[in-house]
Amino acid sequence: MKLSGFKWLLLSILVIGGIWAGWKELKAQGADLLPIKYVRIEGIFQYISKDDIKQALLKQVMTGFLNANMQAIRKELLVLPWIAQVKVKRVWPDTIEVKVYEQYPVVRWGDIGLLNEHGDLFIPDNLTRFDKLPLLTGPTGTEKKLMAVMKTLQASLVSQALELLEFNVNERRAWTLQLSNGLELKLGQKEPLQKFNRFLVTLPISGQKQITAMAKVDLRYPNGYAVTWKQGQKK
Questions:
Q1: For 62, which of 36, 45, 179, 235 is 20 to 30 Å away at the CA?
Q2: Rounded CA gap, 65 and 27, in Å?
Q3: What is d(CA 85, CA 46) in angstroms, rounded to the nearest whole number?
Q4: Pick the CATH number of 33-103 from 3.10.20.310, 3.40.1390.20, 3.30.70.60, 3.30.2130.10
Q5: Which residues pair with 40 in a beta bridge?
Q6: Are both 33-103 and 105-229 of the same fold?
Q7: How confident is the model at residue 27, as a pLDDT?
Q8: Partners of residue 83 on adjacent β-strands
Q9: Per-domain boundaries in the chain
């Protein structure tokens, strides 16, 4: 019995060894034996073309079906600024399937790039076509945090029929907001969100006519704020 078991074990090792040797031989023959005939690209494309993706894939798909490196293909595509996520897989016997998820720009980050809905920075060409997006500026590395704050500010302003165009945080962490009606809010460094909320509470009292007449509101005071009126406008 022991001998018979040993024979089966030996036979199993030989079979596995044969399969492994065959697989290595197939991979060694590469593109000649099993070339990649098709690259299937799926996704919704608004800012990037399939030609850009094909160009990035060109070198990676010349190695053959078995030798193609899925991780290398993914990394090659993620270099393209408009690609947020990529899924790559082999489809037997001659196809590589690529699913591309494009970046969705939400705000401009200074004059260097864009932020997606998660606050991730990406830097595409031709930023001028996104001039209508809200502008967010702040210290390097604060993109995600400030993006979350900006969403809160936007939601609060929408409830008051106002729109946020710019949110600036300088190196001293002082906040300044610019609204679509031209109104500038200076919130300073100390408890800027609390000051912002305090200002919102007074809006129903001020009335829409007075709000429209305001040029600047300085909220850097502990218990109130100062208003600068537009030229020719009165309280």
A1: 45
A2: 9
A3: 15
A4: 3.10.20.310
A5: 97
A6: no
A7: 47
A8: 102
A9: 33-103, 105-229
Query: Which candidate, 176, 118, 125, 174, places its Cα nearest to that of 143?
Result: 118
- pTM equals 0.79
- 105-229 in CATH: which number? 3.40.50.11690
Query: Where do the DSSP E strands lie in 70-225?
Result: 83-91, 95-102, 105-109, 113-116, 121-122, 135-137, 164-169, 175-179, 184-188, 214-218
- Interval 130-186: pLDDT, tens: 999 999 999 999 999 999 999 999 999 998 889 999 999 999 999 999 999 999 999
Q: Give me the amino acid identity at 135.
A: L
**Would you state the structure tokens that stand for residue 88, as one six-digit string?**
């790559």
**pLDDT of 18-60, one tens digit each?**
444 444 454 454 445 788 888 899 999 999 888 889 888 888 8
